[in-house]
Amino acid sequence: MITVYGLKNCDTCRKARKWLTAQGLEHRFHDVRADGLDATTVKAWTATLGWEKLLNRRGTTWRGLGDADKQDLDQEKAVALMTAQPALIKRPVFDVAGTYALGFDDQVQTMLNGENS
């Protein structure tokens, strides 16, 4: 089963969920804000995807952070920030039996369909 991590109001997450349903792919949605997120999960994502790629620096949550939070970022600090404020995570994040993918481009769709995995 595919687990989709994201925010319920995120347009890309909605698009991905609709696409998965249309493809007949069994999935469940985990709202990172409403359902929570633990540091262990975020660490697993960063180990595979990289914290720089996972951290959303374009959103309003990032812009609202204080300068102290934004300075001297490393993986440990980024994981703590993303765990405390899940809207800082780019989305959606897909978990397919421990294989992670970020975003919803053609390459991710191919992986989700089981082609070229």
What does this protein look like?
45% of the residues lie in helices and 15% in strands. It is an alpha+beta fold. Helix 2 packs across helix 6 (75-84). 24% of the residues are buried. It has one domain (2-112): Glutaredoxin (3-Layer(aba) Sandwich), CATH 3.40.30. It starts with a strand and ends in a 5-residue tail after the last helix.
Summarize the SSE layout with pairings.
Layout: E1 2-6, H1 11-22, E2 27-31, H2 39-49, H3 51-54, H4 60-64, H5 67-70, H6 75-84, E3 93-96, E4 99-102, H7 106-112
Parallel strand pairs: 1-2
Antiparallel strand pairs: 1-3, 3-4
Helix pairs in contact: 2-6
What tags apply to this protein structure?
4 strands, 117 residues, Glutaredoxin, alpha+beta, 7 helices, 4-stranded mixed β-sheet
What structural category characterises the helix and strand content?
alpha+beta
Strand segment tally: 4
Low-confidence stretches: none
The CATH superfamily turns out to be: Glutaredoxin
Give the tally of structural domains: 1
CATH topology: Glutaredoxin
> For the CA atoms, what is the radius of gyration?
14 Å
**Can you tell me the overall shape?**
globular
As laid out across the biggest beta sheet, the strand order is: 2-1-3-4
* Number of distinct helices: 7
Q: Taking all residues together, what is the mean pLDDT?
A: 94
Alpha-carbon distance between the two ends: 15 Å
What is the top-level CATH class?
A: Alpha Beta
State which percent range the strand residues make up.
Answer: 15-25%
